[in-house]
Design goal:
Length: 398
Amino acid sequence: MSLLLTGITELTTNDPARGDGAADPGDALLGIVRDAALVVSADGEIEWVGPAAQAPDADDHRHLGGRAVIPGFVDSHTHLVFAGDRSAEFAARMTGTPYDGGGIAVSVAATRAASDDDLRARVAARVAEMRAQGTTTVEIKSGYGLTLDDELRSLRIARELTPHTTFLGAHVVPGEYATQRAAYVDLVTGPMLDAVVADGPTSLAESIDVFCEPHSTHAFDGDESRTILEAGRAAGLALRVHGNQLGHGPGVRLACELGARSVDHCTYLRDADVDALVAARGTTVATLLPGVEFSTRSPYPDARALIDAGVDVALASDCNPGTCYSSSIPFAIALAVREMGMTPAEALHAATAVSARSLGLDRRVAPGQPAELAVIDAPSHLHLAYRAGVPIVRALDL
């Protein structure tokens, strides 16, 4: 049965052709329709969008009580397959201990020791937690196994909950390879990668990622990262990069050079990095993760400068046990507005349309698109940042 949704005070479509920017440029960016309605087909596809006064008939009808509707958040950077607890590490950082990537080993040990059922239950609970906060699409990385069997296990479990899985065997060099870095790179680019893509189009991962961070002795330098990314690309995987998180480095420019879909963190940027991102616009998205800066007492990226330069900027949670154990995109939006110079409209666009683009998706509310929607218990998207910390948004169940 088709379903007509009315009682929508403000509908964000992410379709600029629908927005009226005369009063507010954010309306044009978000493609806002006021006093809106939409029709969803029986198979969950949007059939019609427009003013409620022009809405066609449908088999069923639901009134949303004067709430705002937005595209569901697209969380394009998460590490959800893990066990263990690193709250003590967070507490230590709050008293001055710097983050260097070493705590990942704690999560690796706990994840390796966990059963399949335990990991499966943990990941499902985290995805449900995200959905309760408006996230309808999530990318999940491996990276807390770091053996062939444990990486494959992580990807299989992630694949049960999302098609957007990323092979992150190159998260850090595990302890057992600390003096054999080249051998571990060979393992990642050889047997691990071969097993990940063994089934061709039904590969366990759609992307490959690397923690390119010369400022951490645990992560990978530029040459190692290039080797890993080029191997992944040759195997048919899309590219993603953790870059420039702890200091200036080659990650951003390497991602742009190789045509990565996304380079994430982008905390420390030089002019040449920004120039590379501008040149790569339409191919490489700069995904900012403000929850990490909040959780590590690091400087926030200058989103305002990036947007003004013409860079495609996305927002994601980076939900992980060490540097940001938050699954909340509304929290990331509030931080982006308060700390990084983004407007509320830019932050919402970044967490939906641009984040989707980094996964090869289109997240407009338009006929023919999936009805991946979220509803805000407020009349406007402005309340996402205005009411920071209040659970006012959730995925819309149809």
